[in-house]
Amino acid sequence: MTDRRDTDPEATGPDDETKPHDSAFFSPPAEPRSEWAAPRWTEPEPRPPTPEHWFEAAPRARVEPVTAQQRSAGIGTVVTTALLAAVLASGGTLVALNATGALDRPAPATTVDPNSTTVNQPITINESSAIVNVASRAGPAVVQIRTGGEVDPNETAIPEQGVGSGVIFNSNGWILTNRHVVAGSATVTVELKDGTEYTGTIYGIDTLTDLAIVKVEATGLTAAALGDSDGLRVGQLVVAIGSPLGTFSNTVTSGIVSAKGRTIQTEGSQLNNLIQTDAAINPGNSGGPLLDATAAVVGINTAIARDSTGIGFSIPINLAKPLMEQAIAGQPLARPYIGIRFVRIDSQRAKDLNLPVNTGAYVRILDANEQPTDQNAVESGSPAASAGIQTGDIVVSINGKAIDQEHPLDTLLTQFAPGETVTLGIVRNGEHSTANVTLGTRPPGLG
């Protein structure tokens, strides 16, 4: 596992590292071929022939022989007597039911055998209607972003241009998008769904994730609602909207949340805590929103797996919310920083390294064989060093919130702003203690 620094390695690279119109890509490491990936399917076992009796007619009902006494009455007499009794009985019953008013009552509900295969199950959600609703409500808040690169006046080359997507999160012209969509661009043009165009400016770039904020001078724009990415569940319906291939504006695709907490290595950077989805994401979708069934933004689409089908990734919206709040308040975009290198602890790593806890952030640098090194994992002069954090400590909580697989240290830190003081729960040599740390500002270019 790759060692991480503070809130994991910076998720951005040099400005000219990726073309602004491309989605980020990553290539998973090759793994041995599985049995299911064999070049051809094995032939199924031949089915046994259908038993001949399956085609036979149903056996006739057995007729009991008539006794001698029944014969003496005569068939005609018996039939006539039976019909007369039935008519009289039904007439008497009808009179009685009318007198009691029983025939005026509504018919009882039909009951169905619960073991029958014809039972109609109730529909809990109309997926098609949900997607239509999401597209209608969130579509006007999704924009196309066209960028133009800087040009050397001594060169005759045509400036590089690209197309991406973005989502309006505040009606006064604030737009959230991907860093790789706008970084290094000389011009930014924002086009709304109705075709209206604005000149945009890059307000700020995130130093931790592949996020950026663009501003246009406009008011009264349609803004998207923001959801809670922490509440997402695997298998949940999600919808992506964007401009795939830079041509098909406001394209809607749907899928599910395939997984959470993914870490991928893109071209020159590492992205952590991502949402994996099988909703179709293509170049040009970058920066567009991933939405839940209520049309609330739960992620920002950022990367697709190279040579794959149905493997895309989005940055959880909860990671972006602090940046959005800073922008609206007119503050520069900044991330908190404590100044440690750490690895995440899971049950297997706890067993391998003989650690006293199964979750947390281990303040240690490991070698290629996953063994602790003697390197100092606490940056000199950092907030962590000032608070007395030491190499070998295990951070198990922040302000009482446990650090685990669903809530890693780097994700929890994003909820705080530089300058805030937080209380870290520490395990040192098997003993529990706390340390108060005043968060610094994450330096640009931190790797």
How would you concisely characterize the structure shown here?
This protein is α+β, with helices and mostly antiparallel strands and 447 residues long. The protein has helices spanning 68-73, 75-100, 127-138, 179-182, 317-328, 347-352, 383-386, 409-413, and strands spanning 4-5, 24-26, 142-149, 161-170, 174-177, 185-191, 197-205, 212-216, 225-226, 237-242, 251-266, 269-277, 289-291, 296-305, 312-316, 336-337, 341-345, 360-362, 394-398, 401-402, 421-428, 431-438, 440-441. It is built from eight helices and 23 strands.
Could you characterize what this model shows?
The protein is of the alpha+beta class and 447 residues long. It has two domains: 1-26 and 126-332, Thrombin, subunit H; 336-441, Pdz3 Domain (Roll), CATH 2.30.42.10. Helix content is 17%, strand content 30%. It contains eight helices and 23 strands. The protein has helices at 68-73, 75-100, 127-138, 179-182, 317-328, 347-352, 383-386, 409-413, and strands at 4-5, 24-26, 142-149, 161-170, 174-177, 185-191, 197-205, 212-216, 225-226, 237-242, 251-266, 269-277, 289-291, 296-305, 312-316, 336-337, 341-345, 360-362, 394-398, 401-402, 421-428, 431-438, 440-441. The strands form four sheets. Strands 1, 17, 18, 19, 20, 21 and 22 form a seven-stranded antiparallel sheet that branches. Strands 10-11-12-15-14-13 form a six-stranded antiparallel beta barrel. Strand 4 and strand 5 form a beta hairpin. It is globular. Residues 1-21, 30-90, 93-97, 99-119 and 155-159 have low confidence and may be disordered.
